[in-house]
Amino acid sequence: MPGAKTIAALQAEAQAAVGRLEARALLRHQLGCDEAWLIAHGDEACAEADVQAFRALVARRVAGEPVAYLTGSREFFGREFAVNSAVLIPRPETEMLVELALQRAPQGASVLDLGAGSGCIGVTLAAERPDLRVTLVDVSAEALTVARANALRWAAANTALLLSDWFAGVRELRFDMIVSNPPYIAAGDVHLAQGDLRFEPRMALVAADDGLADIRHIVNAAPGHLESGGWLLFEHGFDQHAACTGLLQQAGYRDVFSARDLAGIERVSGGRRP
């Protein structure tokens, strides 16, 4: 195919615009291959349709669209999760919430994942611990469609999904543990106009009352849906740990704590049902 672009040349072209790692991620996605195949076939010519489609992906990335939305997936806790613009992109710091939940969940526990989004938290708990029974709740039907696909892939046997505005649809159900990564960014936060946050669903990011409104609601309502001694664990902003532990203490939770992530930021708080 005289004059055709090789895979290596196409990567080099994109690398100048978006960097090596992102260029390779987008190229793997476009060609439907893994990293080993990409390395082994660098001298092969690319079909013109792939060249044009790949250039369109790169252009969208240059415009700021997140790589996860372009490829339709993001790795979390060692698994690939389907994502799209209806859900937040799973982030490494949220893995600590999963680790803390795994440490505290008793054998055979029932777990509620509030505001599940892609399902990365609840599905990971269910996949790591087949003994757990995990219910994933979200107010967005579009988000639940994504969560359902991830649950079917990784933990179909011990997950259930429910369309609900926080606890509204949960009714009288009680759980041994409630986990959540709720909206916690204040409406005026400058970060909302930067990076991937510009493209992520605003309803999953922003909360009133300086970002604390949804956390306050969850803290106050969770005892009515927790078994005796059950845990509430949730992620929050880098500067909200004092406010969050204060809310938990005011509501009478026991064993209140705040945990630091690998960067030393107090990222997760929790306590046991009062």
Question: How would you portray this structure in words?
Answer:
The protein is α/β, with parallel strands linked by helices and 274 residues long. The protein folds into two domains: 7-63; 86-272, 3-Layer(aba) Sandwich (Rossmann fold). The chain contains eleven helices and nine strands. The strands form two sheets. A seven-stranded mixed β-sheet has the order 5-4-3-6-7-9-8, sandwiched between helices. A hairpin with a 5-residue loop joins strand 8 and strand 9 (266-272). Helix 1 packs across helix 2 and helix 6 packs across helix 7. The chain is elongated. The model has no long low-confidence stretch (mean pLDDT 96).
Percent helix range = 25-40%
> What is the name of the CATH class of the largest domain?
Alpha Beta
- Largest beta sheet, briefly? 7 strands, mixed
What is the spatial order of strands in the main beta sheet?
5-4-3-6-7-9-8
Rg, rounded, reads 21 Å
Strand content: 15-25%
Task: List unreliable stretches of 5+ residues.
Answer: none
How many H/I helices?
A: 11
What is the domain tally?
Answer: 2
Q: Termini separation (Å)? A: 71 Å
